[in-house]
Structure formats: structure tokens, C-alpha cells
Design a protein that fits this description.
This protein is α/β, with parallel strands linked by helices. It folds into three domains: 119 residues, D-Maltodextrin-Binding Protein, domain 2 (3-Layer(aba) Sandwich), CATH 3.40.190.10; 117 residues, D-Maltodextrin-Binding Protein, domain 2, CATH 3.40.190; 65 residues, Alpha-Beta Plaits. A seven-stranded mixed beta sheet has the order 2-3-4-1-5-14-6. Strands 10-9-11-8-12-7-13 form a seven-stranded mixed beta sheet. It has a four-stranded antiparallel beta sheet with strand order 16-17-15-18. The longest helix has 20 residues.
């Protein structure tokens, strides 16, 4: 029987998620159209869901852990524990308006529409985040006080303020202005799609990335907690491995001390004697961004440099599911 139920996201970060799972568990069965996949560990049951659903489902205990975006955790106001930033799916949440609008920020936009007594219409998939951020704006407070913007969906209308209306978008949000709405609240990676649709960013709200999250009750279960700790170690190993290089180099005895003095290492390099007298092999892990700086040094002092991308680097002594790993999304 599986000990841990694991929800992973479908959609824009699906491919990157499947890649990190494959690198962590070395085997994954069932991608594409299926919603149930298998890892090499039979104690983990995996299901593919929309990332919007995962924070709530993990909070309610349908799943013990999941992968979703920080943006959806904030939108759901989910009471869950973030265990690990997986460092992919990097996006920004922004407000954007047509390029011809004079407003250069959200405060000006709200003020312009309020003084003209014209309803401000906004399209978004992030209804609660949009409403909360607007209510915190100084211009909104000045013109409308504490009342909430009106949120409009096909099945629901909440909020008292008809002068600021937030419409649920089912996708292609950037295509809505200017005919259907005046502004959008959406995510962007590079800003290219916004520019192609003649939109400009007037406010950045938060940065988001894919994170591993857990149900708090699941972490109190001893058996599940142990399995989740193992999963964190494997995934963190991939995250760290992507930042490092594994290098092997041969060096003469007289150059060894000088080489070691100029070589950064994850901890301490491994040094071994070679079959040829007076030669040593040095084996170490370095940050990728350090490699270019040390090539000239190695070229002068060493021979036979071999460079490899490590699949995983597991800091086993550092994996602790304690309060230090918690992060608040607000």
C-alpha cells in the first residue's frame, strides 16, 4: 500500500515537473494523457492535477504532498507547509494595461477611472489575489474605503463595489483588453506575450516558482514523515545538482598545493595517487558559475580535466523537516 499520496501539476510546468521526477527517481511510467503515473518507489502514489487545485487538496488531506506554484498557494490561502523551492516555473504576477493608457502604475489607473466615475474592469485567473492587492492600494482606499471589489464569474458574484469589477478568465487573459476589460492581472515569464498583445506592465505583485508542499497532519505521522524526508532529499539533490559541476583533474605533485589553494569545492576535494609516480587525481564539486574562472588556473597547473553534470547531489545531513523550512506566502 502507498504510504504517501503525491499530487503533481498539469499544464505549463508539467514537462519541467516530469523531468525533475525522472531525475530524482530515475524511472517514471505514465506521462502524456494519463493522470496517474508511477515512480520507482511503490510507496508513493502519484496523480496529475491542475496546479490551481493542489494547494487546497493538500491542505484538506486528499494528498500528503504536492508540487504547485507559490502563486496558487497565495490564491487559495492554503494552510500548508512549503518544504522545498524547486527553482523552476519562475514567473511574476503583474497588472498590465493597453500600451496607449496614460496610467503608469496601479494607483494612477484606479484614480483615473474613479474620477471619471467609470467602472474599472479587470480580467484574471487569480480572483482573491487580485481583490486583496487592489484593496491594499492607497487610491482604492481613498475612493472606496474598505468595501471589496466585485468578483464576477459565470456562477457567482461577490463584493459590493461595482466600480471595480474582477472577471474570472478561463485563459488567454492577455487577449481580453481593450475590448472586454481595461486591465489584466496575470503571470509573465519574459513579458514577450504581453508586448505582442500591446500591453504594458504597471505593477508587479509577487514572484512565483514551483515548490514542494506538504499537509501539516501528514508531517505529524511518523511513517509518512520519514518517506517525505526521503522525497525531499531526492528532489533537493536534483535542484542542487543542476547548479554544480563534478570535475576530475590530474596534477603533478609539485603543483598539487597550488591547485588546491585555487580550487573551490563543495566541502573537501578527494585526492588520490595515480599509477604513475608523482601524479595525483583530484575529484571535487564546484558551482557552475565558478568554472570559467578556474579554467586558466587548471590549464597552467594540471592535465586531463574531465567535467560532468551531476545528476543529484544529496546533502543527506541537512534534510530536516522543521520550522526552518517553512515559508509564508502572503
Amino acid at each position: 500500500m502507498p504510504t504517501v499520496k503525491f499530487a503533481v501539476p498539469k499544464g505549463s510546468i508539467e514537462a519541467a515537473t516530469f523531468k525533475i521526477l525522472e531525475e530524482a527517481w530515475h524511472s517514471i511510467v505514465g506521462s502524456g494523457r494519463t493522470y496517474r503515473i508511477r515512480l520507482s518507489d511503490p510507496e508513493i502514489e502519484v496523480k496529475v492535477l491542475r496546479p490551481q487545485e493542489i494547494p487546497t487538496y493538500v491542505q484538506e488531506g486528499f494528498y500528503d504532498i504536492g508540487i504547485t506554484g507559490k502563486d496558487w498557494i497565495r490564491e487559495a490561502k492554503a494552510d500548508i507547509k512549503i518544504l522545498l523551492d524547486l527553482e523552476y516555473g519562475l514567473v511574476k504576477q503583474v497588472f498590465a494595461v493597453p500600451e496607449h493608457f496614460e496610467s503608469s502604475n496601479l494607483t494612477e489607473l484606479i484614480g483615473e477611472f474613479a474620477t471619471k466615475k467609470k467602472p474599472l474592469r479587470i480580467s484574471t485567473e487569480y480572483l482573491t489575489t487580485t481583490s486583496s492587492h487592489i484593496k491594499e492600494n492607497s487610491a482604492y482606499k481613498r475612493y472606496f474605503g474598505d468595501i471589496s471589489p466585485m468578483i464576477i464569474t459565470p456562477w457567482l458574484r461577490v463584493g459590493e463595489n461595482r466600480n471595480v469589477q474582477i472577471f474570472l478568465s478561463f485563459g488567454a487573459t492577455e487577449a481580453k483588453p481593450p475590448e472586454d476589460v481595461d486591465a489584466i492581472f496575470d503571470i509573465t515569464e519574459t513579458g514577450t506575450t504581453l508586448a505582442q498583445n500591446k500591453l504594458k506592465v504597471i505593477d508587479a505583485v509577487m514572484e512565483s516558482s514551483a515548490v514542494l508542499v506538504a499537509n501539516k497532519d501528514s508531517l505529524r505521522d511518523v511513517k509518512k514523515r520519514e518517506k517525505i524526508s526521503d522525497m525531499v532529499a531526492l528532489l533537493k539533490g536534483v535542484v542542487e545538482g543542476r547548479k554544480k559541476l563534478h570535475i576530475f583533474v590530474n596534477v603533478k605533485k609539485e603543483n598539487l598545493d597550488s591547485l588546491l589553494a585555487n580550487m573551490p569545492a563543495l566541502k573537501k576535494p578527494t585526492i588520490s595517487t595515480l599509477s604513475e609516480d608523482g601524479w595525483y587525481g583530484v575529484n571535487t564539486i564546484i558551482d557552475k558559475n565558478e568554472f570559467i574562472q578556474i579554467v586558466p588556473i587548471m590549464r597552467k597547473l594540471a592535465q586531463g580535466l574531465v567535467v560532468m553534470d551531476p545528476r543529484q547531489i544529496l546533502p543527506l545531513d541537512e534534510i530536516r523537516l522543521d520550522n526552518d523550512m517553512d515559508e509564508k506566502i502572503s
